[in-house]
Specification:
Layout: E1 4-7, E2 22-25, E3 28-35, H1 50-67, E4 75-82, H2 88-96, E5 106-111, E6 122-130
Parallel strand pairs: 4-5
Antiparallel strand pairs: 1-2, 3-6, 4-6
């Protein structure tokens, strides 16, 4: 695990809500591709259910991080791609089961017209830094 430094509100920048403005670390950089609500057999999970999809996406992120020798403690940035911003509360609830509020990474949320298939409501990618 890398020692991460978080700066939630740099001087002159409005305080962040539900993310941290700056996260710094030293070590190996890990990029996790955008994860979708697919189970281990490649079947969609939670059609029309943002909470079920968010739960599956975070589980997939956890597994990808573990494959790289990382955990959510190492995540420095999450990017949320959603087809409707109304899904963000479900995403935040799923995130809270993996990342406590005092360890939030930097984040961006982007509403998109569509994802790779119409049943997907969200896709989330992660960047992490693992200690050397």
């Amino acid at each position: 695990m890398s020692e991460l430094t978080r700066i939630p509100a740099p001087d002159g920048v409005a305080p962040a809500t539900a993310y941290t403005h700056v996260v710094m670390g030293t070590g190996r950089f890990v990029a996790i591709s955008g994860q979708l609500a697919l189970d281990e057999d490649g079947k969609p999970v939670g059609e029309d259910d943002p909470a079920a999809q968010a739960h599956q996406v975070f589980e997939n992120l956890r597994r990808c991080l573990a494959a790289a020798g990382a955990t959510f403690d190492d995540v420095v940035k999450l990017t949320y791609f959603v087809t409707d911003m109304a899904y963000m509360p479900a995403i935040r609830a799923a995130r809270a089961t993996h990342i406590p509020d005092d360890r939030l990474p930097a984040a961006s949320a982007v509403q998109v017209a569509a994802l790779v298939r119409p049943e997907f409501l969200m896709e989330i990618e992660a960047f992490a830094v693992i200690g050397e």
